[in-house]
Amino acid sequence: MRSAALVAALAAAQAQAAITVKDDGGNTVTLQKPAQRVISLAPHVTEMLFAAGGGSHVVGVVSYSDFPEEAKKIPQIGSNREVDLERIMALKPDLIVVWRHGSSERQIDMVRKLGVPLFHSEPQKLEDIPESVARLGQLMGTEKTANPAADALRQQLVSLRSRYANRPPVRVFYQVWDKPLYTLNGKHIVSDALRLCGAENIFAKLPVTAPVVSVEGVLQENPEAIFATAEKNYGGVSMWKPYGTLLAVRNDNLFTIDGNLVNRSGPRMVQGAAALCEKIELARQHRSK
C-alpha cells in the first residue's frame, strides 16, 4: 500500500510540475520540465527568447537573427523558407518556436514530425508581444526575467495609448517594398501600431495581409503621410517626391523608419511603435504650416 501511495504521490508531483501554456495558434503546449535547449525559427522569436531571459537556452536560429548581439554567435539551422532537419535533430532541442507565414506550412509540418514540442509565435496585436514574452519565460523557467520584461512592455504600451488615443487621425500609407509596391492590411500588427498612434491605414480593408497595390491607387487615396522602412538598395519614400499633388508630399510627410523595429513582431516593436507615433505627430504639426 505504501509503495502504491508513493507512486501515486510521485505521479501527482510530476503532473504538478508540468508546464502548460497556450501558443498564438491556440494550441496547448506542455513540457514536463523547463526547456533547456530551444530552437528559434524566426528573428522576432529569437529577440523574444532573449527578452524572456532565455538567451543561454537558444541553441539554434534562422538567418537574420541578429539581435541582440549575442544572437549572431548562435548556430544557424536554415532560413524562414527552409531549415535543415538533420541539424535541428543534432542540436537535441526540447522546444522549437515556429512562425507561420505564407510558405511555412510545409516546413512546419516537417518539423512537427520530429516529435519535439512546438510553440507557434505570431502576435496579432502589440499587446500580444508582452504576453508571448511571459509565456516563453514560463516554458524556459525564466519567469524572474520574463515577467518584469513583459510588465515593462505593457507599461510602455499603456503610456503610448494614453498619449495618442485622442489625437486627430492621420491617413497613412505604409510601404513595405516598392518593386512590386506592396503594403499591409488592417489585420497586420503594423496596422495595430498605426492605430495606437491615431493613424488610419488607407489600405486596411483589403482582404490580403500583404497586398500589392498600384501607384495610381495610392494617388487616389491621397494619404497625409507615407512611411517606408530603411533598407539597402531600396528606393523608399523618395519615389513619391515627383508626385507633387500628394498631400504627403505637399506637407513634407515622407517618413523613413527602421524596419527592424516595426517589421519584426518582437519586443523592439514597442520601440518602433513609439517612433511611428512621433512621426505621425509631426504630420499633425505640419497641418498648421
TrEMBL record:
Ranges where the Fe/B12 periplasmic-binding domain occurs: 37-284
Stored Pfam families: Peripla_BP_2
PROSITE patterns found in the cross-reference section: FE_B12_PBP
InterPro entries, sorted: ABC_Transporter_SBP (IPR050902), ABC_transptr_periplasmic_BD (IPR002491), Vit_B12_bind_prot (IPR054828)
Matches recorded under Gene3D superfamilies: Nitrogenase molybdenum iron protein domain (3.40.50.1980)
UniProt key word Repeat: no
UniProt superkingdom: Bacteria
Classification via CDD domains: BtuF
Sorted UniProt keywords: Signal
Entry keyword annotation includes Signal: yes
Extent of the signal sequence: 1-17
Xref: PANTHER family: MOLYBDATE-BINDING PROTEIN MOLA (PTHR30535:SF34), VITAMIN B12-BINDING PROTEIN (PTHR30535)
Protein's name according to its UniProt entry: Cobalamin-binding protein
